[in-house]
Amino acid sequence: MVSVLLLFLFLGIIQIGLVLHVRNTLAANAAEGARHGANLGVDATDGGPYAQRLIAGSIPGRSDTTCTGAQIDGPGDVPLVQVTCEVRVPLSLLPFGGGVTVHVSGHAVKETP
User: How do strand 99-109 and strand 79-90 relate by DSSP bridges?
Assistant: First the structure.
């Protein structure tokens, strides 16, 4: 009886680790996409597709990620590039889980001439 409880506890810990790994990788790639979109001569919306390509190469099977890039006004009217990514992570290790949607954003200051 105890072994069944320990098995579910162990699988839950592994599942949480998997979701956190995907979230951290998504956040890093969204920030990198924002830095790419913030370069001089690069459109801010190019950061989203750039982040999507990074995610597809970083996390196998995560080609369903949607990333969008936009230029926004930051504090003091500083131009910022914001890249927002979203992906659904299935809870495959636990028998009663459906999935969780992970949202992350990356920001960078837009270079101006």
Answer: antiparallel
